[in-house]
Every structure is written in structure tokens, then in C-alpha cells.
Amino acid sequence: MNEYLLLTAGPTPISQKVKKTLNQSMAFHRSTEFIKTFLNLTENLKYLFQTKNDVLILTTSGTGAMEAAISNMFSPDDSILVVENGKFSERWSLIAESYKLHVNRLKIPWGKSVTIEQITQKLQSSPSFKGVFLTHCETSTGALTNIETIVPVIRKHSPALIIVDAISSAAVHSLKMDEWGIDVAITASQKGLGLPPGLSMAAVSSKAWTFADKAELPRFYLDFNRARHSLASGTGAAYTPAIPLILAADFVLREIKREGLENIWKKSQETAENFRQKIANLGLSIFPENPADSLTVIKTDHLSRCDQLPHLLKEQFKIIVSGGQALLANKVIRVGHMVNVDESDLDRFLEAFQATIMTSKHRPN
Ligand code: PMP
Asked: By alpha-carbon position, which residue is closest to atom 1 of ligand 1?
């Protein structure tokens, strides 16, 4: 009980085995052994994304991969469509605008996920887009977008490149890049993979490579073609990568392969469903309509001192959860359970949460 219990929506707790891997002596990134590990990790990441496409490893947090997905695929003045249903999907628009793209927003109320009708109507009523951007798990609201059903609808109505932020869904939710027809899928190390922050990964389809060849936006450090050539030429990473994170990621991906993604997805679903049921038993509601299994976003705006809940949980119970962001500030709390969090951790949270709400209720604001 000395350690804080980390239940944020990322970073996620890291296991003892990962800590041990991170603690190894420093390796040289141009050594044969390291390059072998790098290439092995690249191959295993294909399994994570369920793809035969190239997967690139970038030394950035998730936002770097978002930026790279834009700068590598488009040219100034290109029109794109961003499905916005929260703070992270809005980030696609902000990045694209900073690169002078024309951004068309399909605004979905926070907590909801885009429907087939909404996307169809948007695509039919607008001139053609070069790219459509989706967010699998919108971590600010806890809403899951059904990528499997939305992507074929986009394909039917548009030749656009389909780009998916899977930062907080990979290794938690079923994600099948090739089967579902995604062109660029990205994720980051500090969520479902249970690694420290600092790495992101981008899986790139053959259609996306044709876009990359024509894209005129400026890029250098995060140039996908350069990363691809380094891999193909046997050099490994184009620049000095975050070596300890690569070694730890290699370990984690081997574990994921051993356990099997189907089993991991099922386990995450069971954990999330049990937790949501226990929240409902407390008489509390979940914010999103179609909740993701990565985190649970609980409505707290009717509780007194709701603005202080994360602080109280931390000070009194050594439990760290995330509060709401932007529109949801002081209205929800977000409890992450992507990886390395088990039912006993969530029960510990529930007990502490219940005690906190009870005392809160009896105290004036
Ligand atoms: N997209 C989503 C869905 C996220 O959850 C996050 C991180 N919370 C980001 C983008 C941004 O990633 P990072 O903080 O690693 O740059």
C-alpha cells in the first residue's frame, strides 16, 4: 500500500518484468543484436495492428504519430474530414490546421460516437475529402467508435485515406487494420502496451504509401519514407531511438503474442464490463453512450466537491485517477484499466470512491 495505485487513462502502470527490462545496460542501436530486436519488434507490431503493412516505430508520444500521419500524407490546401467527439479527436483538426489543410469537422456531441447515418450524410453532402480521421477510443469521454462498421461506409462514399487514432485502444480492443480497411493506424507506448511514454507506432497501408509519395507537407524527423528505407536497408531506426523503450516494447510484444490478442481483448472486456456493473450498483452513471473497455468515465457532476474528487482520492487513498478535460472539467472522473490493472485494484478504487462520495455528500461545497 506504499505505492500509489495508478488508474489514469494513460500512462498505465508498468509491470515488474518491464521495469527489469528497462533497467538493462545501455545497448548500441547500430549493433547487430539491437537491429535484430528492432526488426523483430517491427514484425510483432504487425500482429498488434493485425496487418501485413509496414509498421514504423517513432520516438515520440502519440501526438507525434498524429502529426506524422498528417505531414506524410497530405499537401497544403488538401481538404480533410475529422470526426470530432472529444478532446483528442479535436487534436487531429488542430494539427491539420497548423499545416494549412482545409479541415471539415463532423462534430458529434461529447460522449457519443459517430453513426453510419451521420458519416454517410456528411460524405454525400460535401466535396470529396483526401483524408478522413477517426478516433477509436476517445480518451476524453470514454466513447468507442465502431471502426469496423464506419470504415466500409467511408470506403463506399469516398476515395479518402482513412486514418485511425488507436492510441488508447490498441492491445485493449479488437483492432484489425487490414480486414477493416484502415490506411494509417497509430498507437503509443503508454496505454494498452503498459510501457512508459515515449514511443509511438504507425502502420501504413500500400494506398497510404502512394499518398506519401505525393505529399508535399514539410517533414524531416518523422518522415515515414526515411523510416521505411532504414528498415529495408537493415539499418534499423533512422535515428537514435529510445533504446530502453524498444527493448521493453520487444518484451511486451512477445508477451502479447504468447497470450494472444483475442484473449487480451476478451479479458479487457470482462474487466470493463464488471467494473461498469459495479459503478451502476453504486447508483452512478457512465458518461459515454458506447463505452470503450480502456477506461470508464463516470459522471460526477451531481456530487458535491466533484471538482476535488481526484485530489481527495490521491491524498486520502493514494489512488490516482484522471479528471475531466475541457467541457468535462469537474463533471466526470476517468478511471483507466487498459493493462496491469486487475479486479482487486478496481475494487480498491470502488471502496475509496464510495467513502469519498459519502463524505463529500455530507459536506458543503
Ligand atoms: N489520442 C488519444 C486517443 C489519446 O488518448 C492521447 C493521449 N491521452 C493522445 C491522442 C495524445 O497522445 P500523447 O499524449 O502520447 O501525445
From this structure: 88
